[in-house]
Every structure is written in structure tokens, then in C-alpha cells.
Specification:
7-stranded antiparallel beta sheet; 1 helix
């Protein structure tokens, strides 16, 4: 009888067992890398927001119609601004983007710029569960795991 070149059932099962072991080892490592990179991307985006708020204040010092203090509120990635219009001393609300920055809006949170140019920030990323906070004088953004309801500022411009 002629012998054919084919895999036996035992050889196929051995290959499947090796693949299962490799998947068991590599999947948690890959998921950890993805979570870490998502948190790092959010931290970079939050730092960009903070720098944009600093730049906004710097640019306003050259103008007389400043909109300070300013509270930028994010809810479901939508931006709302509430500020004291110093030209007419009225509290106003706007949905237009006042602080120019690159990157996407956070899921929720606030940025507050007071009339002295101090920037306070607490923004939340739903995907990672991270709350990025920054206070005046901080050199970097601090990430902590918080509930979205705890990641906000209790400040008002008016």
C-alpha cells in the first residue's frame, strides 16, 4: 500500500495546542499595550488642551474685549463655553470653540481660566476611565481613575 503525505490527527491537535498556548500568552500582553497607549494618548490630548488654555489667556492680554473668566464644559464630547464678557460686563454662553487646540474633545469635564490666567482642568475619558487634572503651577497632567461625576470643577465665571 502506498503511503500519502498528509498530517495525522495527532499532529493537527499538537499544532492547535501550541497555537492555543501562544494565544493565551500574547492576548493579555497586546490588550495591556492597547490600554496603556489609549491612556497615554488621552494624557497627551489633555496636555494639549491645557497648553491651548494658557495660549488663549496670553493672546487675550493683547485685546480689550476679553472673555474671562471662562468655563469650558464638555458633555458627550460637545463643548459649551460660559464667560464674563468684559466689554459689556454680561455673563454669556456660547457653543463655538473659543480655545483652539488639536485633538478630540474629552467625553466630559471642565477647563476654567480665571481672570489672572490661572488654568484649572478636570476632563474625563470614558474609554479608559481616566480623569486628567491640572492646577495652576502643575507642569504636567495627572491621570487618576475616577467616576465621571467626580471629574469636574466647581467653578463659575459669573
Amino acid at each position: 500500500m502506498k503511503k500519502e503525505n498528509a498530517f495525522t490527527l495527532v499532529e493537527l491537535l499538537a499544532v492547535l495546542a501550541i497555537l492555543a498556548i501562544l494565544a493565551t500568552v500574547t492576548v493579555p500582553i497586546v490588550l495591556n499595550i492597547l490600554n496603556t497607549s489609549s491612556s497615554q494618548a488621552f494624557e497627551d490630548n489633555a496636555l494639549s488642551l491645557s497648553k491651548a488654555a494658557d495660549s488663549y489667556y496670553t493672546a487675550l492680554t493683547l485685546k480689550s474685549d476679553t472673555k474671562l473668566p471662562l468655563l469650558v464644559t464638555f458633555k458627550n464630547r460637545e463643548e459649551t463655553n460660559k464667560y464674563l464678557n468684559n466689554a459689556n460686563k454680561q455673563c454669556e454662553t456660547s457653543n463655538e470653540r473659543i480655545i483652539e487646540y488639536t485633538g478630540q474633545n474629552p467625553d466630559s469635564g471642565n477647563i476654567f481660566i480665571d481672570s489672572n490666567g490661572d488654568v484649572y482642568m478636570a476632563v474625563y475619558n470614558k474609554a479608559t476611565g481616566d480623569c486628567a487634572t491640572k492646577n495652576p503651577g502643575d507642569k504636567k497632567v495627572t491621570l487618576t481613575k475616577k467616576d465621571p461625576s467626580e471629574c469636574k470643577l466647581d467653578k463659575s465665571p459669573c
